[in-house]
Write a structure and sequence with these properties.
The structure is a homodimer of 134-residue chains. Chain A is 67% helix and 10% strand. With 134 residues, chain A is mostly helical. Chain A has one domain (9-133): Arc Repressor Mutant, subunit A (Orthogonal Bundle), CATH 1.10.10.10. Chain A has a three-stranded antiparallel β-sheet. In chain A, a hairpin with a 5-residue loop joins strand 2 and strand 3 (80-85). The longest helix of chain A has 47 residues, at 87-133. Chain A is elongated and about 70 Å long. The interface between A and B is large, with 49 and 49 residues. Chain A binds a DNA duplex (20 and 20 nucleotides) through helix 3 and helix 4. Chains A, B: It comes from Microvirga guangxiensis. Chains A, B: Keywords: DNA-binding, Transcription, Transcription regulation. Chains A, B: This is Transcriptional regulator, HxlR family. Chains A, B: One of its GO terms (molecular function) is DNA binding.
Chain lengths: 134, 134
DNA sequence: CAGAATCCGTAACGATACTG
DNA sequence: CAGTATCGTTACGGATTCTG
């Protein structure tokens, strides 16, 4: 049992901070792909699908900055750069997979809830416009 | 062992979708606070700290739409509205806590990696400007 | 090949004022 | 009390062009 009634702002902030690192548009996908093994830049660019060159660069820089991936440059011609998960990155991948499992498990329930909610809102709207017209 | 080399786009998309629901600026904090029990609007507004009225409203609507919280209106004067986690919301809270635990556990390592990275970048910059001046 | 730099549109967010 | 409506700003992300 954790004392959840004790509010520790630092922890909340920490969690939020980490979540916004991982919650951006591409970080998770990149981490998951790198979970398959080290990859080169354009290799990632192809497999992540939909990511722009710019965003892949920024995402990788961010992950590198936080110590989640390493960037290794082989000074050949043409240049060759490999990205690889660090141990920290691997441990993150594990907990992200848990969240992923939850997402897949509850996908249908969420989608249906969404459908219901949108339907209800639509119904309310049409009732509204009917009373407007009257 | 999961066959991680088999790429299932639907699952990736699902995970990304869920993560962007939870990865926004306030959802997690709201869910965590609601994990302590049902709360009223302004009660949340105070405990979540930093959230604007507008964003709290939007966040709660989003969570309600996805079936993660319920919204109960007591038609008294003044009005009283209670928000409460659904079962689905509770199950999400559990996996989010796992991510939170990871965040807290690895906070220092991340911060230090960040510091190192920024230092290295700064050093490179100053070397750059020195060769510019020459 | 692996990026850096620039430009630009959208969407997220915050502050404020108003309402039932 | 619990919102809605409107406005302005900022941050995110995409497309394009250029470079070592």
């Amino acid at each position: 049992m954790s004392p959840s009634h004790i509010h520790v702002p630092t922890n909340c902030h920490t969690v939020t901070e980490i979540l916004s690192r991982v919650g951006d548009k591409w970080s998770v996908q990149v981490v998951v792909r790198l979970g398959e093994g080290p990859k080169r830049f354009n290799e990632l660019r192809r497999t992540v699908e939909g990511v722009s060159q710019r965003m892949l660069t920024l995402t990788l820089r961010g992950l590198e900055r936080d110590g989640l991936v390493t960037r290794t440059v082989y000074p050949t011609i043409p240049p060759r750069v490999e990205y690889q998960l660090t141990e920290l990155g691997c441990s993150l991948l594990k907990t992200v997979r848990a969240l992923g499992a939850w997402a897949i498990e509850n996908r249908d329930e969420i989608l249906e809830a969404r459908r219901r909610f949108d339907n209800a809102a639509e119904t309310a709207d049409s009732l509204q416009s009917r009373s407007d017209a009257a």
